[in-house]
Amino acid sequence: MRCGLHLHDLKGPNLTSTILVTGGAGYIGSHMILGLIDRGDRVVVIDNLSTGVREQVCSDAELVEGDVADTELVRDILKRRKVDAVIHFAGSVIVPESVTDPLKYYDNNTGATRNLLAACIAEGVSRFVFSSTAAVYGMPDTTIVTEETPTAPINPYGRSKLMTEWMLRDIAAAHPFRFMALRYFNVAGADPAGRTGQSTPRATHLIKRACQAALGRVPALDIFGTDFDTPDGTGVRDYIHVSDLIAAHLLALDALAGGAESNVFNCGYGRGLSVREIIAAVERVSGNKVPAREGPRRAGDPGMLVADSSKLTRQLGWTPRHGDIDEIVKSAYAWEKHLA
Ligand code: UFG
């Protein structure tokens, strides 16, 4: 993949770090690699390519094809590459699948992370950024969710991620080890330079599906529920541009390098958009109609889930730059067209 923009002046050469990115061939991981390479860090990727796409890994990064659960392999990478910190994306992410195949989620998300962490502890790698999820909150009573909102996941996916957060806390209490867990709301969009995007063919995410419908690649978009207690009856979510999410990871990484304590942060904009508002945005951006059919709610879908991310702004200085929904959709649509 054509990759680095080589914006190395963003960071002095002496500050260059070596970062292990797990799941770097996936949607968010591949953007993370670009964010790190663009600022001059060295990147090693471990991915078993079960859902990831080899071509999505920037050629400036070293790709090791393997499993994060393989403690010996990870130890070897950490030692030989002198890894300073780990950003952990590898895992399974499809909520309905987690309901039908829970052991896969406890294996790939919780068990595999346990082995990865064992390698970090054994090799003295003490900085860790973890890809967590708003699914840890389940169906919160409140519509604006802070990090203090009780965690009560309602599916194995959310539980497998929350268990990992607990594991991280226990390890940080017992060892010289610090972590940042970032709880993503609805990640969307693609690299503004068009270098990577969401390629997973089985992706079920609204913006991707709506773009596919606008391009005629699926017959219609199903609207899952029109009777929620929301302004237009459809589900409301907080869609965050993947580039702003990557910026949050870089800040989290730098905070750890600067000695910050372990912490948990929500990642979203604090802005809710309904399914109908997303359809309208895709129609505006594409100039095409999004054929849609109304149907029942999807099991386990909360009506509204919006992040209070003020902690991220306050404590890490995060300033979102790509929040405009048309910008998010434009990048997602451009990537979808490119996948043809
Ligand atoms: N939706 C549709 N039609 C579709 C797809 C989605 O109407 O074809 C609706 C959903 O019902 C929901 C909204 O669009 O109201 C967003 O759905 P997504 O599937 O895009 O995302 P979710 O909010 O269900 O899930 C996302 C992540 C999960 C994470 C969860 C945390 O994909 O990994 O947020 O709440 F667990």
Care to describe what's here?
The chain is an alpha/beta fold and 340 residues long. It has a domain of 201 residues: 3-Layer(aba) Sandwich (Rossmann fold), CATH 3.40.50.720. The chain has ten helices and 15 strands. Strands 3-2-1-4-5-7-12 form a seven-stranded parallel beta sheet, sandwiched between helices. Strands 6-15-10-13 form a four-stranded mixed beta sheet. Strand 1, helix 1 and strand 2 form a beta-alpha-beta unit. The chain is globular. Bound molecules: uridine-5'-diphosphate-4-deoxy-4-fluoro-alpha-D-galactose. Uridine-5'-diphosphate-4-deoxy-4-fluoro-alpha-D-galactose (UFG) binds next to helix 6 and strand 9. The site of uridine-5'-diphosphate-4-deoxy-4-fluoro-alpha-D-galactose has 21 residues, from helix 6 and strand 9.
Fill in the CATH topology of the domain at 18-189 and 239-267: Rossmann fold
Q: Distance N terminus to C terminus?
A: 17 Å
> CATH superfamily membership of the domain at 18-189 and 239-267, which one?
NAD(P)-binding Rossmann-like Domain
Flag low-confidence runs: none
Strands, helices and their partners?
Layout: E1 18-22, H1 27-38, E2 42-47, E3 62-65, H2 71-80, E4 85-88, H3 95-100, H4 102-123, E5 127-133, E6 144-145, H5 156-174, E7 178-184, E8 186-188, H6 206-214, E9 221-224, E10 236-237, E11 239-241, H7 242-257, E12 263-267, E13 273-274, H8 275-286, E14 292-295, E15 304-307, H9 310-316, H10 325-338
Parallel strand pairs: 1-2, 1-4, 2-3, 4-5, 5-7, 6-15, 7-12, 8-11, 9-14, 10-15
Antiparallel strand pairs: 10-13
The structure holds uridine-5'-diphosphate-4-deoxy-4-fluoro-alpha-D-galactose (UFG).
